[in-house]
User: Fold this.
Amino acid sequence: MRLHFCLILSALALFTDSNRLAAQSSLWVAPENSVAYILQEGEVVQYDFRQGTKSVLRQYLWVAVDSFPTLSDDDALIRLGPPYVFTSEDTTLFTFAGSGVVFGMGSGPSKLPIRLDNTFYSGYNFDCFRAVYDRTLYSYGGSGFWSRSPALIYFDTDLKEWERIVPEGVLPEDFAMLWSVEKAPGVYITSSFPDPDVAPNTTLHEVFQINLANGTSEFQGYFSLALDDSPHEYNFIGHIGSRFLLEVDKRLYVGDVLENKMRQVQGMIAGTGSFNGFEGVIISEKNVALIYSASTMSNPSVRIRILSLDELWAQSVDSGQPIYVTRSKFLYTKYTTEFLVVLLAVLFLITFLVRYNLAQPGIERQFVQSLNAPERRLLRFLILLPFGQTATIRDIDAILDTADKSWENQRKIRSKSIQVINSKSEQMMGYLELIQRIPNPDDKRERTYQINPEHKTSATTMLRYI
Assistant:
């Protein structure tokens, strides 16, 4: 199923295979519903699809010069969103965001748009990606009232309807177009944009490569301006080949996807967005028209500068930013502060551990040397006890050599020795309760003792000094 565009030979709009749109040469996106603008023989021409009128800009006034059939008032109000205008040397194609309406027009100042479709849908593919490849008009994604469309569709000229394509690969989910540009025939680089209302899972400006030849996509990275902390206001103007125009915060940028560079056009303080009937930018075929007011108190008029995209590129300066960056660079740039905090924390931890391990043997030696002989024997005995075993009071008294003492003196010597070991271990090495007392639930007067399990492993290194 191919999209055939033909010259308008009569009011019946006969189409012939000899007049096809051979390839997409340019795309321009209008800023307002139902009204499109193109250049014809150096003049700015307006097509109002709601009123069905053709007007020409003369000085500063729009002069109606012709009319053409269009939709009814109710249909036009619902189904004619902002136009996507594709132009080539002999054909102009008008499609509309949010609906399947398609108008075509041949070349020449006497030609008028005619409707090519019989579609009736509307309302679910605003901000969709649209492109013409191999004489076929494609559309993908876009936002509806409650969600984003996952459909890849094309315009069938035999049925005059949009038909769905089952892609061979995986296409981006929750996709709505911020901007697009043709990298190669049928291969487009395009950026999506987040919208928490209809696409809560999309939070960043992701960039994809979409191949219309096989219906596949490949993730490229993130739109570089999304690295900025402050939000930006965007207005996609259109593209010619591998370069596109984008208004960012009332400044005009030119992007080259082959070089992955963005340049800012200098000397423009107004008219940096898509032409709105008063000022702005129009892309038509291979030219760019810059239109802005040149009025004086006595001579109201507009100024029109028609440039090639190469000339506009030459008049711009490097913005210092690429169009998109890889995932790793995006994460590093966006979260530099967090990365530095984590890195410093890791370095601090490593330094602490190294210094601790270097200082620990000396501290352990000082700790052991600060104990008297019975206390060292007690510590060694408890460290050498297997896990799960404990020492009884009689074991402790035997180690402390208090067998000839009275029961009260034995208790005092035992309590003092354990208290000294615990106190010094806490002060010198930070061990809380190195020797742990374990009461007997059956006889509260009976206690057993062990090295605290939390310190059991680390305490074994003290054996070399005992």
Notes: DSSP finds eight helices and 29 strands in the chain. The CA atoms of residues 102 and 176 lie 20 Å apart. The chain has two domains: 26-334, 371-465.
